[in-house]
Write a structure and sequence with these properties.
binds NADP nicotinamide-adenine-dinucleotide phosphate, 12 strands, 6-stranded parallel beta sheet
Length: 250
């Protein structure tokens, strides 16, 4: 059974690792190509967009894909919508492998906002030292608030994505641990953190470090993903879904 995994996440890598070496399945991992040096995967990998919904339909038919597992990041809304539409159009089974969002607990000082623009507004007028942990592709709205100092962490160089006078760029890739997150926040005298509500464990230590230091965190809510798609929260649950497809109960 040929399976397409839409990846770019820790969960997609874990799922790929679960399928590696299985002779009854033929998985293919797809990456968008945003990271110049992606971690090597234990299954065949392709890189680059499909060319929207029509391109994905063509790809699925040409490669005779029987099932798609959408394990993209919770903020990768376009790819998920394209996958839902393409699979629906040609009757390919689709599973969304989605980690649950983080939920504030005792001691968290969260300011939840619906978008990056509102995250900028939530920083306020007074200059602050801001730890921006939102990747590099959605930095532009922060160019509108030039009074702040931004400590930006991303996997790839940010180039000119953030047009502000006080920017400190740090390159690093998850997973992170609380001790080093806390040390970074103290060293850079961070006043406030901005994050997407990504969920998962790999980047959660920034939340626990902020809690320990009593720092406020501006948490950007997830975009809408397609409704009516079957969901699994873990790689193991996604494997069970595939096995039910592959060997339906008598
Ligand atoms: N957004 C985030 O915060 C974030 C964080 C960590 C990792 N990622 C990963 O980075 C990638 C891009 O994220 P995004 O937010 O830019 O996505 P997006 O806005 O949903 O997708 C934009 C376009 O990128 C292509 N694309 C996205 N994911 C792809 C995949 N796995 N394989 C092939 N093409 C893909 C598609 O191009 P075509 O229309 O040409 O097919 C899609 O229409 C995803 O794989 C995602 O899992 C995203």
């Amino acid at each position: 059974m040929r399976i397409l995994i839409l990846g770019g996440t820790t969960e997609a890598s874990a799922f790929a690792a679960c399928l590696a070496g299985r002779s009854d399945l033929s998985p293919l991992l797809s990456l968008a190509g945003r990271t110049s040096d992606p971690r090597p995967a234990p299954i065949p990998t392709r890189i680059g967009g499909f060319g929207s919904i029509d391109g994905l339909v063509h790809f699925l038919m040409e490669k005779r894909i029987a099932a798609v597992v959408d394990a993209t990041h919770p903020f990768a809304a376009r790819m998920s919508h394209n996958a839902a539409e393409a699979c629906d159009r040609i009757g390919v089974r689709l599973l969304a492998l989605r980690r649950p969002p983080w939920v504030a607990t005792a001691g968290d000082r969260w300011i939840e906002v619906p978008s990056m623009i509102e995250a900028v507004q939530a920083l306020g007028e007074a200059p602050r030292r801001v730890f921006l942990t939102i990747g590099r592709l959605e930095l532009n709205p922060f160019s509108a608030a030039q009074q702040h100092t931004y400590v930006v962490r991303s996997i790839e160089p940010i180039g000119d994505a953030l047009d502000a006078p006080h920017v400190i760029a740090i390159r690093a890739r998850a997973p992170f641990i609380e001790d080093t997150e806390r040390a970074l926040m103290e060293r850079e005298a961070i006043d406030v953190i901005v994050t997407k509500n990504s969920g998962g464990t790999a980047t959660y230590p920034k939340i626990t470090a902020a809690r320990a230091l009593g720092l406020p965190v501006i948490v950007v809510a997830r975009p809408q993903k397609p409704v009516g798609v079957e969901e699994a929260e873990t790689a193991e649950a996604a494997v069970r879904w595939l096995e039910r497809l592959h060997r339906p109960a008598p």
